[in-house]
Amino acid sequence: MPQRDGYIPGVPCWIDTNQPDPEKAASFYGDLFGWETEDVMPAGSPARYFMGRLHGGDVAAIGSIPEGGPPIAAWNTYIWVESADDTATKVTEAGGKVLAMPFDVSDAGRMGVFADPEGAAFSIWQAKRHKGANVVNESGALNFNGLNTRDPDRAKEFYGAVFGWETMPLGSVAMWTLPGYGDYLERERPGLRQEMAEMGVSGFEDVVASLNLIGADQPEVPPHWSVIFAVDDADAIAARTTELGGSVVVPPFDAPWVRTAVLTDPQGAMFVASKFAAENRDLPDPAA
């Protein structure tokens, strides 16, 4: 698959994870997904930021806990914007909270960190040199991002106001859509709309993320953004995760279009491994 070189505003474009021990995490994900990792921080810096790469293209990064931040491992979702400062204004006007005002990341870009009205944290990225993930939607790379919420109506208001997102129902979940994204993808990959129609999911080409409802039986789960990695074998990845010191939160299971598992790395950052399974197209939705 050709490497990507940028995104359009309103599309999740990058992920990284903050870890108490980034070197240990780099070893884990390098083994699990086959990433080559390189610390790209300047010599002498007390912080670490390991770039994970597949086929020479950036897929994700593993960094130190920010100064003053809680020592909790977590994955972070970044959304592409034209102006980080203008987006910060939109966030506050829509009822969100600024966790870190926009700041420059050397010559790579400009970012900010925010929380939606329920407290789910996300980052934004105004690109300069770094154009987000180059490799996506293949084994070991980012496949999807998802918002997990207890108040989908409030989420729709907030993300619609900030990023212009709309929603499309799909089974027991909804999908965030960005009008015009499908046009962009069609130019990059002619025939995509026809392919989606033949699969019975017309409109999916405009999807940028998923919108998932946190169940009443999960009172301990806070609203959050999740990351989903594409894999060739969800069962093998789950088994390898435990061998490497991680944990299986939800064992591999079949759902429409996928076989998927919920996992954590050795330091507790949660992520999802998902294998596309066209043969599961007509399976009943387990969440239903």
CATH architecture: Roll
Overall number of structural domains = 1
* CATH level 4 superfamily: 2,3-Dihydroxybiphenyl 1,2-Dioxygenase, domain 1
Mean pLDDT: 93
| Number of strand segments | 16
Number of helices: 6
| Main structural class | alpha+beta
- CATH-defined fold name: 2,3-Dihydroxybiphenyl 1,2-Dioxygenase, domain 1
Distance between the termini: 34 Å
Radius of gyration: 18 Å
Give the ordered list of helices and strands. EHEEEEHEEEEHEEHHEEHEEE
Question: Which regions contain 5 or more consecutive residues with pLDDT less than 50?
Answer: none
Name of the level-1 CATH class: Alpha Beta
Q: What fraction of the residues are assigned to beta strands by DSSP?
A: 35-45%
Biggest beta sheet summary: 8 strands, mixed
Widest sheet, order of strands: 2-3-4-1-5-8-7-6
Shape: globular
Percent helix among the residues? 10-25%
